[in-house]
Amino acid sequence: MKNKVPIGIVGLGYVGLVIAACFAKLGYQVTVVDIDEEKCKAINEKRSPIFEPGIDEILKKTPFKASMNPQDLADAAIIFICVNTPSKADGAISLEAIKKATEQIASVLKVKKDYCTIVVKSTVIPGTTQEVILPILEKSGKKAGQDFGLCMSPEFLREGKGINDFMQPDRIIIGEYDKKSGDALYDLFRDFKAPILRVNLTTAEMIKYASNTFLAAKLSFINEIGNICKRLGIDTYQVAQGMGYDERIGAKFLNAGVGFGGSCFPKDLKALIVHAKELGYQPKLLEEVKNVNDQQVLRMIELLKKHTSLRYKNIGLLGLSFKPGTDDIKDSVAILITQTLLAEKAIVTAYDPQAMQNFKKIFPQISYNNPDEILKCDAVLIITEWEEFSRLDYSKTKIVIDGRRVLKAKEALIYEGICW
Ligand code: UDX
Asked: Separation of 261 CA from ligand 1 center, angstroms?
C-alpha cells in the first residue's frame, strides 16, 4: 500500500467536506480546520453539517477530525484551502476568507520543519494564488518552492453529486508553482482514472472560470432558444434532443427552464465579468449570459400574469433549492420569484423537501406547507424539479406555470411551460 501522507484541509464548506470525506474513505488521515465551532462539533460527532448524499455514511465508517486550531495541521504533508470566495456587492470576488485561511496556514508553516504542499482549491480569480496567496504564505519566513510547495487545483464538484464527482473526475487540473509542488499533488491523484493536466497557477485558475461560465453560457443559450421556441409553439426539449446528437454540442446541460442558480455559476460569472473589466476588456458575451438568466426568472411571472392577477392571490411555490438533491438556496431563482410576488402583494406559500429551513431564514413572512396544500392555491409555480413533484395529482389545480419540465403537471386545468 503506497504510504498515504497526512492531509490537512482548511474550510468545512461543501467542497472541503466532500474532499475530506473522500480522502478519509481512501484511507488517508485527514484533519479539517474551520472557524465554525458548530460544524467542527458535527463532524467530530460523525454528523454531516450539510445535506450532501453519502457524507454521513463515510463519517460513520472512516471518520476524520475537525478542529478550530490551525496548529492541528502541523503534521499534514498536503494542505488544501477550501474556503468560500463569495461575491462582493459589485460582483467582484471577495478574498477575505481565503486571506484569513492563508494567514492561518502561514502560522503553521512558521513552525513546520518539513516540506509541505499548499493547494488552493477555492475558486479564485486568475492571478490570486501567485499575487495574493503566495506572498501571505511567505510572511511565515518560509520560501515557496524551497520550504513549501504551492499548487492551485480547481474542484469541479456538483452539489448533490460531490462524492461521485470527486471519485470519478472528468479531469484533474494541477496548477503548479514549480515541478516539485506539482509532483507532490500528482502523487496524490496518480491512481485516479482521469487525465491529469499540469499547467501554471494562473492557467489552472482560468480553467475553472472558463468551465463554469461556459456551462452558464450553454444554459442561457438553450433558455434563449427556448424563449423563441415558446413563441413558435414548438418544444425546446425536442430541439435540444436534435442538437445533442452532435458531439461538438453534447446532449447534457440543455434542459431549458427558469434559469441557473447556486453557489457557483452566478458568483463565478459576476467575478469574471468584473475582473475582465479590470483588465481593460468588455466581456459582452458573459454579460449577456447573466442578463438572459436574470430575465428568465421574470418570464415565470409574465406567464402567470397571462392567467391571473397577483394581488392578494394565493400563489404556491413547488421547490426552493437551486436544484434538486440539495438544501442549498444560494442564488436560487426562488428568491427573486418570491421577492417579485411579494412586491405584487401576492400571498405566497412554499414547499421544498429539503430547503424550507434555509428559505425561512430569508423569508419568514411567507407560509410553508405540504405539496397537497400548495396544489390548492390559485396558481402554482414549479421552480425546482424534485422527483416527488412528478408523482403529485395536479388534476384539481387551477393553474401551473412550470419552470422545470415536470410534465405530470399538464393535468392542471391550465398548464404553461416556460420554454415549451
Ligand atoms: C456547478 C458545476 O456543474 C460544477 O462543475 C462546479 O464545480 C460548481 O458549479 P452546481 O452549481 O452544484 O455545479 O450545479 P449544477 O448541477 O451544475 O446546476 C447549476 C444550475 O444550473 C442549477 O440551478 C440547475 O438547475 C441549472 N441547470 C442545470 C439547468 O437549468 N439546466 C440544465 O440542463 C442543468
From this structure: 7
